[in-house]
Amino acid sequence: RKEVEQDPGPFNVPEGATVAFNCTYSNSASQSFFWYRQDCRKEPKLLMSVYSSGNEDGRFTAQLNRASQYISLLIRDSKLSDSATYLCVVNTPLVFGKGTRLSVIA
Amino acid sequence: EAQVTQNPRYLITVTGKKLTVTCSQNMNHEYMSWYRQDPGLGLRQIYYSMNVEVTDKGDVPEGYKVSRKEKRNFPLILESPSPNQTSLYFCASSQDGSSYNEQFFGPGTRLTVL
């Protein structure tokens, strides 16, 4: 059974905090990995792809551990605008995690 | 502007009344798909299409039909809607079926079946 598991949260953090999300996947043959962001009642949008060597985009860092079959997302210096649900996505086959909800509080 | 559009955005209907939710993309994408999103269950794929005239079932196809007569359009059809199909529906497209491509989502259709 293809599964992607995430801690649903919510993670309530103060502005400026560093927060990390983890995601585990069950299909060892999965080839590509992503983090999507979904604002309340809106469509998901790609935040970043996750590469084997790890990758960074500003305050966001994504890591992949194929041996342990988990993906992580680190957000540094959290902003109020980071409040959203973060979806872990694995392909192939394409499977979405249920999402981790983040609330950044002033 | 590159986008995926869905119509209607909101729909309230009654059990058994056939309905169609349209989806259109202007990015010349080959791959299109439909998802439903329910609280606690996340996004679940209903149907997908790798190209014109090629459609396949996703994880939850029961009660739904799709067609792909043109590359840009991928309508979702509910022949006889039931209350358990009340949900938030998203259409998505990507360049092709490659696992490395970004999925572009439409704005969503909130369906209520009474």
Features:
heterodimer, A: 106 residues, mainly beta, six-stranded mixed β-sheet, five-stranded antiparallel β-sheet, 11 strands, B: 114 residues, seven-stranded mixed β-sheet, four-stranded antiparallel β-sheet, 50% strand, globular
What report would you give on this structure?
The complex is a heterodimer of chains A (106) and B (114). Chain A has no helices and 11 strands. Chain A is mainly β. In chain A, strand 9 and strand 10 (95-96) form a beta hairpin. The radius of gyration of chain A is 13 Å and the shape is globular. The model of chain A has no long low-confidence stretch (mean pLDDT 93). Chain B has 114 residues and is an all-beta fold. Chain B is built from no helices and 11 strands. Chain B has strands at 4-7, 10-13, 19-25, 31-38, 42-51, 54-57, 65-66, 76-78, 87-94, 104-105, 109-113. Chains A and B meet through strand 4, strand 5 and strand 9 of A and strand 5 of B.
How do you describe this structure in short?
Chain A is mostly beta strands. Chain A contains no helices and 11 strands. In chain A, strands 2, 4, 5, 9, 10 and 11 form a 6-stranded mixed beta sheet that branches. In chain A, strands 1-3-8-7-6 form a 5-stranded antiparallel beta sheet, with no helix packed on it.
